[in-house]
Every structure is written in C-alpha cells, then in structure tokens.
Design goal:
single chain; about 220 residues; alpha/beta; two-stranded parallel ribbon; binds zinc ion
Length: about 220
C-alpha cells in the first residue's frame, strides 16, 4: 500500500509553479518544479490516476485527453483515493467510478448534452485546474468523484462514508444512483440530499446524523 500524505502535508501551498513531466531532462532545477505523474502511475492502494481521468459517459464516448495540468490536482486525486475510496473498496469490494476529473474541455462537451447536470464552479471535479482566463475553475479546491457499487446500494455506502471517512462534501442522489464525494481543504463534512422535484434536482443540506432518517422518510 502506498503511503498517504500526512494530514499536515495533505494540500500543497497555494502557489503555482511550472510543472515538468517525469520524462523531462534532469538538467532543470529540481526545487523549482513539481513532477506531474503519468496517468498510469498508481495514486493509492487500489487506484491509478487514469481511473479518475478516463471515466464517465461523455469521456468514454469522445476519448478526450482530459489530463490535469496543475500538480495540486494530482495531489487532490491522491487524497480522495487514499482517504475515502480505498477504504470503501477495502470494506465493500470493487466500485465503479462513473465521473471524476473534468477538464474545461470535457465540461464544454458535457454542456452540449440535453441534461448536462454539471456545475464546474462548485462540484470540485476540476480539482485545482484553471480556466482559459487563468482563474481556478472551482474555488473550493480539493477533488470529487462519483461512484457506485455493483451490489451495495448508495444509501449504505453514504452512511458508511459519513461514519468512517474525512470527507468535504457528500451528495446523495438516491440508492440506485452514484454517490458524489469529495475531499478538500475546507473539510466541511457537508451532506446534501439531491431531491427530484418536477424533473429538477433540488439540493437540501442536512445534518450528518439525519441521513438515515431523512432518506427513509423521503423515500430516496
Ligand atoms: Zn459529482
């Protein structure tokens, strides 16, 4: 198992430094740069970076490059994999990632779908990436992934994550829908029920200990 980052070093300093690939010549001053991992590199016990870069319906259909350019995004992917997803796999077995890293290019393509259901400025799927104006796409930082298990309903997964993991935001869409979970610098432990009303998803922020009661009462 790869060592996860210690709590104190979980997130990199909010400065931007030029990134080089591991294959670049070693003549560059090492302290001035941070390495960008390859998609094939392992980021945690059960996951490789590519698992987070090349998943989701639109990405699978279009096969876009969809690769982060900011080293902090890779660190954030690693943190989510180590702190939450590895633990879920250890407990329940393999999961399916249904949506994870979303570059500006992928977001543009998804927005062409009839019901895109993405919010890049809030959903943490862009990590620390910037838009074409040099502004961070999602100010929350951190990273999010959507996942489901082939036989364990998402309400059971959500209940377990809430009880056992250090998450930032958890969005619950229903027992048969993927669960959205993030880690991030705010560590806000925000739980949101996404209730469907008149064909639209309406967010409802709840207390952690209300989760089981509310999803049963609302038939989610
Ligand atoms: Zn999501």
């Amino acid at each position: 198992m790869l060592a996860c980052l210690s709590a104190g070093a979980r997130f990199l300093r909010p400065i931007r430094v030029p990134a080089i690939r591991a294959t670049d010549p070693p003549c560059l001053e090492p302290r001035a740069f941070m390495l960008i991992p390859s998609p094939d590199d392992r980021c945690s016990k059960h996951f490789h970076y590519r698992d987070f870069l090349f998943c989701g319906e639109t990405q699978n259909r279009l096969d876009l490059p969809n690769t982060p350019t900011d080293p902090q995004t890779y660190e954030a992917i690693k943190a989510l994999a180590c702190e939450i997803l590895d633990k879920v796999v250890d407990e329940f077995g393999d999961i399916e990632l249904t949506f994870a890293f979303c570059s500006a290019e992928l977001a543009k393509k998804i927005r062409k779908n009839p019901r895109p259901r993405i919010a890049p400025e809030r959903d943490q799927h862009a990590g620390y990436e910037q838009n074409s104006c040099g502004k961070q796409i999602c100010n929350r930082g951190g990273f999010a992934a959507d996942f489901r298990h082939p036989s364990v309903p998402s309400d059971q997964l959500a209940h377990w994550v809430i009880g056992k993991c250090a998450f930032d935001r958890l969005y619950y869409y229903g027992s048969s829908h993927p669960l959205h979970v993030s880690t991030g610098p705010n560590h806000s432990r925000t739980v949101v029920l996404m209730q469907e009303r008149d064909g639209r998803r309406v967010p409802r922020v709840i207390k952690e200990d209300q989760f089981n009661t509310l999803i049963n009462a609302d038939g989610l």
